[in-house]
Request: fold
Amino acid sequence: MTNLHVGKNDMLASAGSQQGPPGGGGPQGGGAPQMGLSRQMGGGPGGKQGQGQNTPDPAQKLSKYVLPSRAIADSDLPGIKTMIDGVCKEINASIKAAGQKVDYEVIKSGILDFQSWLKRQGCVRQASTRYDIESTEKYTDQIFFTYPGTLAFDIDFKMAGDTKKPYRLLLFITKADLFNVASLVDNSTIDGVPVPKGWPNNPGSYWDLRESYWKKHP
Reply:
């Protein structure tokens, strides 16, 4: 498991927000001004900005995507999801601009860039993933066990009122479309294992009941 810890020195300031559809082009229009998100880019993630001899490294590019340093509320989550989607698109654009063949090492590089960005956000108290992202030889059995590949981060945001409310971020990954946000949802755990909101307390009984139902209603 990879654990990310954010200290006070990592907190960043923020302002304004722009929104766009998950899996589509760069963030567009709209937004969630109440949360103070900022994306101070001179062009869309798919543009040519930054190419050439003075191309910024990934950390420099992603540093322009900033989540609030303050404690957040539930109403901030849509804007946070939009910002995370923008970060994924920036990583995708950088990989494509390099013109390199996308293999597991390239995927790993993108994951580590995203992880480092997440670590720097002031509203993130802790985030972890149970995937062994350092061992690309395990990707087929872990991240790419399904299509599209899936990578989950369990995030503990700093919530207003010191509320303990973990969230689960799921990313879709393919070698063609690279990184896209699948969901950012309220999370809970069963025996210490993170599960999506609404998941039955006893998954075994749930599937037994489902099987029994379909036997009676073929």
Summary: Residues 1-53 have pLDDT under 50 and may be disordered. Residues 2-216 form one domain. Helices lie at 58-62, 77-98, 104-120, 203-216. The longest strand covers residues 178-190.
